[in-house]
Queue: 3 jobs
Job 1
Amino acid sequence: MRFLHTSDWQIGKGFRFADDETLGVLQEQRLEAIRRIGRLAREQSVPLVLVAGDVWDMAQPAERTLRQPIECMRQFGEIDWHLIPGNHDPHLPGGLWDRQRRHGLPPNIHLHTTAAPVSLGADPSGREAWLLPAVLDRRHALGDPTAALDSMPTPDGALRIGLAHGSARGFGTDPDEGANRIAADRAQRSGLDYLALGDWHGATPAGPRSWYSGTPETDGFDRGGDGGGSVLLVRARSGADPVVASHRVGRFRWHRDAATLFSADEIDALDHRLRDLAGEDLGDALIWLRVAGALSADDRLRFEQRIRDGVGSALRALRIDDSALEASLGDADLGVLGSGALRDAAEALQIRAAAADRIAAAALQRLLLLARQESGA
């Protein structure tokens, strides 16, 4: 049986670093990723999508947020979508899953809130397939949420496909040690031909016949090389390892970079490097940049113009941590202030900065930068 495996859509996710415009685009692209999954299913003639939890980012989403992914899936009525709760959207009494059912659902969308086997019908060869869902009814469930899969009955010879959300093999995003912890050999214990997992945001195997799909739209700077943006096309085979292929559906690329700057040439080199890192479409890249070193007032102004206001304006987002970027100031830098109270304040800050007072150093650099911008020097 062929199907798509996805998870961790986290619809409604907030991005605290983002301005309102960027936040809106990032949230919309999480919905667009669902549409890309539907289009991929059509292209591959795959009639089934398994969503392994964390469909929503919170347990009580707003009404609009609750309905948005349903409307995306509704557009692909010939495809059956099977969803389970995750640790971000657990099945709570009167919670979002019950709210969703009260609204009514299209016939192609199936919410699984009970740990009981469900027939998926027969594959093209006539072999019957069964879905074995594990259900989280709280954010941090002690014990293994997949333990019930061992005893779920299915007809002899049927494909057994597990669907679960949690941390297998001792890794995952759940901070509570021992919560939602899935046995690394669950697929063997439960006689599964495939175990579709959610929680880890990168596509990666989690043991024999077990995979994390990752989030279809990358959502953080710390995700590394396997940080999401894909969906898995799976061919499950009775008694044999599945055939798994990753297909990219995400739009945005998230990067971290660091630089140590002491001169204008190094600022120019950083500009070029960030553009290369972002790729052909800078508007699809988000970069978190950490800078250290020491810059004169002139070079700090160059940094602001070329990095923050230059390439930074073309990127979807540029976060800059410049807490380790110090001022390297001389008489020429202070001279732009002339004489008077500003000059006196700058000299006082310079003395404190020389004594390793980072706040004073930052204040001095900012004061001189503003003075340069005002004077046009």
Job 2
Amino acid sequence: MNVVTRKQLVDFVCEASRLMEEKKEYLIELDAAMGDGDLGLTMSAGFGKASEFVLSSEETDLGKLLMQAGMVFARTVPSTMGTLIASAFLKAGKGALGKTELTVDGLACFAQDFVCGIMERGKAQRGNRTIVDSLAPAADALQKAAKEGLSVAECCKRAMEGAAKGVEDTKSMLPAFGRAVYFGEKALGRPDQGALVGYYLYQALSSSAQE
């Protein structure tokens, strides 16, 4: 069936956890140059606990599962980015309440809700050099692919490509939030570490959708 199953959603969270652990040192390095230096640690810890939760949970309602994972994330890493990711899961989960699988259109709504959760909580907009700059183009690409009638796997691949381009675009953006603001033009030429987190999430989603 051309849907996202519960297993695939669980696999997405687990693959995100694996990627955040794999990329932890790189994220720490990037964040240390422009921020607090703890991004790799918080993402690894947060997704690690979230993956443990979804693997142990028997919840079949995808919306509840996502919201509960978000709450676990928030408790594990009550940092700025931790709170934003938790908000994304809570918003996306609310939109998926009552569903035991996601259609292509449902997946497109999930992607839009995910980035909206972050924008509502963090007040960041496109072009501010944040995670929004990878999540928003990914959501747009997924929605466009869904309207074209493409499969879940192809939609997720398009979304991952959109996120990758978004990361690349941050290299020419000036920071508008956090400690990175003080570095100004020194940020130019390097990718935003938050946007990279967004890309890794869509890399994980694409991987889980191929099954």
Job 3
Amino acid sequence: MKFDASQFDNLELDNIGQWPAAAKLLLAIFLAVTVAFLGYMGLISDQIKQLDRAFAEEITLKQSYRTKYHVSANLDLFRAQMTEAEDTFAIQLRSLPNSHEIPGLLDDITFVGTTSGLDFVKLEWQPEISKEIYIELPINIEVIGSYHSFGQFVSKIAALPRIVTVHDFKIKIERDDKGTLNLKLQAKTYRYQQEVAK
């Protein structure tokens, strides 16, 4: 069968019933594709997007469920850990000096230094530094003594019943023949922020 292009000449939309079979077939295919495309765009594409969103939400909900299931399955363990953490926090809070104990801390540091064989040049409080849950109380310290005395001093400060940290060590040799050293450092103690609000 030979294709005759002349059969598509002079086709009128008012007289579709008289069109040749090949023209009717092409029109039917064009209309079917157009209807299918418009139907897909109007109805199915939104449904596919909703389905994709539902799949993504399902994955998120499954992960949330796994997490919550893990927590609920280990609830007793989590409660025990929470109690232990609260106890540890309470112990740490007791290690922070109260505002009425802070002046005694200077006495403790002085005692620790003198029993370690050091002579104090300077021991002075610096302005308080407020942090999120605690207040930092820095103390500038300058002492003179031997290297081993410095080690004993720092060790004894670490053994104090209250939390005291040491920072910014600077050691220099004094200008004498005894091998005396000069140590400058900053000790910091901390106070719980809520104590201020009381």
